[in-house]
Amino acid sequence: MAWRFTEVDVVGKQPPPRHMHASAVIDGALYVVGGQHRLDVLQDAWTLRIDDRPYDWRKLKLQKAGSRLLKNRIFFAHAAYGSKLYLSGGTNNQNMSEVFDDILVLDTETESLSTIETEAEGMPSPPRLSRHSMAAMGGSLWMVGGWDGVEWLDTTYRLDLYAPTPRWTQLDADGFVPWRRSHCCLVPSPTSANTLLLFGGGDGDSDFDDVYYLYTRLPGDTKQGYWGRVGNVTGKTEKRTQMGCGVLPPAGRKDAGKQQDKGPGGFAQAENDKAPAEEAHSIAIHGGYGGGGEGRRLQKLSLLSLGPGSAPWAWSELRTSGKLPAARMGHTLHAVNSTLMLIFGGVTDDREKATGGASDELWMVRPNRMVPAHELPNKDGDPTRSPGAGLFGSSSPSPNKDGDGGVPAPRSSPGTGAPPSPPPPSADMLRARARAAAAGAEGGTEGMGGGERGGTEGRDSDAEADRREQALRQWISDSGGKVGGEKAGDEMVGGAAGGAAGGAVGGRAEPRRRAGSVKELGVDAPKKKARKKKKAGKRDKEEM
């Protein structure tokens, strides 16, 4: 199946071009915060509803205190959790050695930007991080790698959002810890609880294409973790950093109208009758910068298939049609559901002179086929929604009372998965099952009786066919009826086969009629008498 890139036509004013910004899809809307444009640091926030047409950007009215929090802040990390978009750390663009240690939060319900108070456990102060990667999972924010103003890092930090005061801890992780790096792809595993997946990144000299997993919880000690490298990956992709990435859910099954498959954020999945049931989750990787210090911006979109089951993970290049966006880096990608990905901003090759390289484009990536009705707005502009499910939900985990953040139940390994539990049967479904069961029982009884009758009739028909065969052959020899003989042979064989079939099938259909009468043989009785009379007259004439 090919996918098509389409640039979204928007009405009204739109955000200035930017890259290295924060963004998220929350409750059917795309949010964009901060970033860079040329040498300017942006201090704004915008939103666009993706389930409503025409597409219209709207600038959020942030209070002055909130806007000042973004002043001179670049190279921060971001992740969405519930209805909030979190920004972590960053660097002062006026003094690159100044690295921030605070956490900003955009509350999409109140449309306000503020900082949250935190405390550090086992550390003198919260870590200062920039160019790092962040993911939200299990009620916590997880940070990997980055730059602290002095050196590149290979550390892993956790910020527990459910503590009375959000608390920092540093994981004392064992195993195969990834080499220090920045701007990698870090996402929660969609198939294994309490597990993060990491891809790529760079250290200033080299870019990477390796894949790691991190078990974030071990029995008895929440500070521990275990890093492992995924070695059974087939195919290949380019080494890169500063790419857009997200988790693409598997396509919906045939019964998607009755039961919606759910992605990491609990959003409704699309229906795809041609999709195999075993299709796996994938990590979508688009663009980025590859090749180290003398690299280039990348353009293609790759998928890392996570299974299914125990199958090896595999890289593949997404088949595309139509015009592709220009090669870019520093942009964001969001997999909204199984048939929609969004790409915004970034530094592109085709805008280097006009806008300093930054882009204000919003692209949709969709399968090149007819899109199900429940994913498109109707004629009145209102989205057609499936019962009990939103059109476009959130690409961020949703917190619950247990603080699990919507992560799946624990499983044995990152490569294993299980289909969603079926919904309870409705009353109509139960009545239909009862009628089918009753019909099956009645049919089975009749089938058994029919089988016995068929078997007896089959044996009788064989003897009857043998007896009549001699008489039929004698009649055919006397009458010379070629066509009649062929039909007689067919019907005679059919009689024996019909008896055998009656015994085997159990009376599902009436046995074929056995040959007997002259009419069944295809010879009309008056014509037979006429032929005999004509032959007798001819013999009498010859004797005379």
Task: Map the helices and strands.
Layout: E1 3-7, E2 10-11, E3 22-26, E4 29-33, E5 36-37, E6 40-41, E7 45-49, E8 55-59, H1 64-69, E9 73-74, E10 77-81, E11 84-88, E12 91-92, E13 95-99, E14 103-107, E15 112-115, E16 119-120, E17 133-137, E18 140-144, E19 156-160, E20 167-170, E21 172-175, E22 185-188, E23 195-199, E24 211-215, E25 224-229, E26 233-234, E27 244-248, E28 282-286, E29 289-290, E30 296-297, E31 301-305, E32 313-317, E33 320-321, E34 328-329, E35 332-337, E36 340-344, E37 347-348, E38 362-367, H2 427-479, H3 482-505, H4 525-543
Parallel strand pairs: 1-33, 2-8, 16-20, 21-25, 26-32
Antiparallel strand pairs: 1-38, 3-4, 4-7, 5-6, 7-8, 9-12, 10-11, 11-14, 12-13, 14-15, 17-18, 18-19, 19-20, 22-23, 23-24, 24-25, 27-28, 28-31, 29-30, 31-32, 34-37, 35-36, 36-38
Characterization of the model:
By secondary structure, this protein is of the alpha+beta class. It has two domains: 3-417, 6 Propeller (Neuraminidase); 428-543, no CATH class. The strands form ten sheets. It has a five-stranded mixed sheet, with no helix packed on it. The radius of gyration is 36 Å and the shape is globular. The protein starts with a strand and ends with a helix. Mean pLDDT is 74; it is low at 253-278, 371-393, 400-431, 441-458 and 481-526.
